């Protein structure tokens, strides 16, 4: 794919986003002093979200497994303008640690305005080999910890009229080869938080839920995982992160990034055979 085409697609997506944002307008000042917890923040999209929140002057707690890296990200957040930046190392496949992270953030920040759930467990990008135990395990970080943390934080978010931001994937809307376990966990997230969104609305809850559907993003872990298999262009993590933050801040129920994931999702049920053809041709596979 030529650089020109890449730039063209990028500019169209920027234009699309610009038009879209003329709807509910984003006020950067609304994030000044906002109390934010971001998970999976040691690298990739989570790290970039931490930096954006920092630039907006938020108070941030970040979490991931690696303490050393969290410390470095925290320091950078402070230098970028975060009012507060704290970290807590945690393993999201544990049954107890997700709750501890919520309690830590609520205690240290004196409440919570944004719970941004973004972490994922490590999984291979390969055809499924029958390893049920791996799927059982991956559900813990990618799904069970999400619903556990959302429920734990809900009373605090009710008080602050806060927002729950779920980072999901186009894989949660349509299936892709080489990622069956991951796809299953993201579909579970979409299903669960879709139901929760209804129930909160019916209860006239103060809490907004934003479900973010991301395409192929240029994080180190994603690029490494699909190396040699997917050659499509990856979209910048920094822009994806900013989109997620704005979606949460403007209390939008959904985000599609890059923009064409919205159309992929629309087309999949109208034309399954075209969609399947495109999906299977987007990966290199020579048995
Ligand atoms: C919503 O927020 C108000 C405070 O502004 C609070 O009194 C009310 O209890 C909250 N609703 C719920 C369901 O907690």
TrEMBL record:
Thylakoid found in the keyword field: no
Stored Pfam families: adh_short (PF00106)
Name of this chain's protein: Hydroxysteroid (11-beta) dehydrogenase 1-like a
Alphabetized GO MF terms: oxidoreductase activity
Keywords for the protein's UniProt record, in alphabetical order: Oxidoreductase, Signal
Domain of life: Eukaryota
Membership in a protein family: Belongs to the short-chain dehydrogenases/reductases (SDR) family.
InterPro entries named in the record: 11-beta-HSD (IPR051253), NAD(P)-bd_dom_sf (IPR036291), SDR_fam (IPR002347)
Organism: Cyprinodon variegatus
Cleaved signal peptide residues: 1-22
Keyword GTP-binding: no
């Amino acid at each position: 794919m030529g650089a020109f085409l890449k730039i063209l697609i990028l500019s169209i997506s920027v234009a699309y986003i610009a038009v879209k944002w003329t709807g509910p307008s984003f006020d950067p000042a609304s994030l000044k002093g906002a109390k934010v917890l971001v998970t999976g923040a040691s690298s990739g999209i989570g790290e970039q979200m931490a930096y954006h929140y920092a630039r907006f002057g938020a108070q941030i707690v970040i979490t991931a497994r690696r303490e050393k890296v969290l410390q470095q990200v925290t320091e950078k957040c402070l230098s970028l303008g975060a009012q507060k930046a704290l970290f807590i190392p945690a393993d999201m496949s544990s049954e107890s640690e997700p709750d501890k992270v919520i309690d830590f953030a609520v205690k240290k920040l004196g409440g919570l305005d944004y719970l941004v759930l973004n972490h994922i467990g490590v999984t291979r990008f390969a055809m499924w080999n029958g390893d049920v135990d791996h799927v059982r395990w991956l559900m813990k970080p990618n799904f069970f910890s999400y619903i556990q943390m959302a429920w734990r934080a809900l009373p605090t978010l009710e008080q602050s009229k806060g927002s729950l931001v779920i980072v999901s994937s186009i894989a949660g809307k349509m299936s892709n080869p080489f990622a069956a376990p991951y796809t299953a966990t993201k579909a579970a997230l979409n299903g669960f938080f879709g139901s929760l969104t209804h129930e909160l609305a019916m209860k006239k809850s103060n809490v907004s839920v934003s479900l973010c559907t991301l395409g192929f993003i240029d994080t180190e872990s994603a690029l490494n995982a699909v190396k040699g298999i997917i050659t499509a262009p990856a979209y910048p993590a920094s822009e994806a992160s900013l989109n997620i933050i704005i979606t949460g801040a403007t209390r939008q129920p959904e985000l599609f990034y890059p923009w064409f994931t919205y159309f992929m999702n629309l087309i999949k049920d109208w034309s399954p055979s075209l969609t399947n053809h495109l999906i299977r041709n987007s990966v290199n596979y020579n048995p």
